[in-house]
Specification:
Length: 421
């Protein structure tokens, strides 16, 4: 562990309390997106403490330690997926936000953590002015080259003020799967308040803690994901920072997410029934007490024990196993379950930034889909399990030829052509 680049979490970034329930601890783990060039030795590879705690006051789930964002994000290998699932989802987000924010031609849309600009492009096609703000210099350059102007910066109150002065107020500020990556939530929400039009909409999409808990999906837990939110926790956060939550949709994307919409209280928007219903459901499920988090820890232990046993039993039968999807979720599964290059021949991934590198920690090589077609395994460990339906359709020929997939959550299971509907 490089102590200069990491610090322990003490007080809750939502409510300020310091009464934490210990949930799970995984020891020192490399950064999930810190892919490496192949080498004879990886002795200098950095690893940092990884675990989860739950705030007994507001029930924020947080990682135990925060790694310096300059280390994690200035050069970044995660690129927004161009899968059918995500393409459709981004169109859904654009349509929903256009309606809720009453976007018109020329209105300003600002996206935090905009990656290579695919989401903003969906707004630009309908005539909105768009601006991305993303600290990854490599990805911001790609977005700008593709016609989506992007500032290679972290979103702060200062950045927001500069945008407001040059571009005017934003009708919509969007953060898709970036809000959970932010430690200084107060600073970001101050920036939102500084930039948002009086009747504008702030929309975020976050992994939903309920899905994490129900599926024992510990692969969502890695250093970049600082927070795991209940809707009630987000309601507490927004209220503390001068915003009012008025609508929510629960979505299947990324293994289970919330699309949450908020605005200024003075805009007096009607609050949809979905908000109260979801908060009430969280309360009925006991998510404000310790027991639900103890059950999650039990389920995590079970998957961590069962998945390596299943993989090694297939290897003992003479089967060859590869990983499907070199995502951050995938590197987390492999590291936490102790599966390395001796068990997993390679991982296939469509992201060219990752191909011909090795996964952090496990040092499993990353290969292109073309390589995989010419050198198929007997069994794929589906690391990108959140795209399972699309992948199983796409790999129908592999299944018909006798190939199989291991699905890791909520309990490890093998699927074949006979079991896929």
């Amino acid at each position: 562990m490089n102590a200069e680049n990491v610090r322990p979490v003490t007080s809750c970034r939502v409510c300020g309390a310091a009464d934490w329930q210990d949930v799970v601890s995984f020891g020192d783990v490399p950064l999930a997106n810190a892919f490496l060039a192949p080498a004879d030795s990886y002795e200098d590879e950095a690893a940092y403490p990884l675990g989860v705690i739950s705030c007994r006051s507001c029930r924020l789930m947080s990682v135990t330690h925060v790694v310096d964002p300059e280390v994690m994000y200035r050069t970044y290998s995660y690129v927004t997926s161009d899968s059918e699932t995500i393409t459709r989802h981004m169109e859904f987000v654009a349509r929903t936000c256009r309606e809720r924010a009453a976007l018109g031609a020329g209105d300003l849309v600002v996206e935090l953590g905009s990656n290579t600009g695919q989401q903003l492009a969906a707004f630009a096609r309908d005539g909105a002015r768009v601006l991305g703000v993303d600290p990854a210099r490599n990805l911001a350059a790609v977005a700008s080259e593709n016609g989506v102007r992007t500032l290679p910066e972290f979103f702060t109150e200062t950045t927001a003020g500069e945008v407001h002065r040059s571009q005017g107020p934003a009708r919509l500020i969007l953060g898709r799967h970036v809000f959970a990556h932010i430690d200084d939530l107060a600073g970001v929400l101050a920036g939102v308040r500084a930039l948002l039009a009086p009747d504008g909409v702030f929309a975020i999409e976050v992994p939903y803690a309920v899905d994490l808990l129900e599926k024992y999906a510990f692969d969502t837990i890695y250093h970049e994901h600082l927070s795991y939110f209940l809707l009630s926790t987000l309601d507490t956060l927004f209220t503390r920072h001068g915003l009012s939550l008025f609508d929510v949709e629960r979505l299947p994307v990324h293994g289970g997410s919330l699309l949450v919409l908020a605005g200024r209280p003075e805009a007096r928007r009607s609050v949809t029934g979905a908000v109260g219903e979801l908060i009430a459901a969280e309360d009925r499920a006991g998510l404000h007490g310790d027991a639900a988090y103890r059950e999650f820890a039990r389920g995590v232990r079970s998957v961590r024990e069962e998945l390596p046993v299943l993989v090694r039993s297939l290897l003992a039968e003479g089967k060859r196993v590869a990983g499907y999807g070199a995502s951050a979720k995938g590197t987390t599964i492999l590291n936490i379950c102790g599966l390395g290059a001796d068990e997993v021949a390679y991982c296939t991934d469509t992201t060219t930034l990752k191909q011909d590198k090795v996964l952090p920690g496990t040092h499993i090589p990353v290969r292109s889909p073309g390589h995989a077609r010419h050198d198929p395994p007997d069994v794929y460990l589906m690391l990108a399990w959140n795209y399972a339906d699309e992948i199983l359709r796409k790999e129908a020929e592999f299944l018909r030829a006798g190939g199989r997939f291991i699905l890791p959550f909520p309990e490890p299971a093998v699927v074949s052509a006979d079991t896929v509907r």
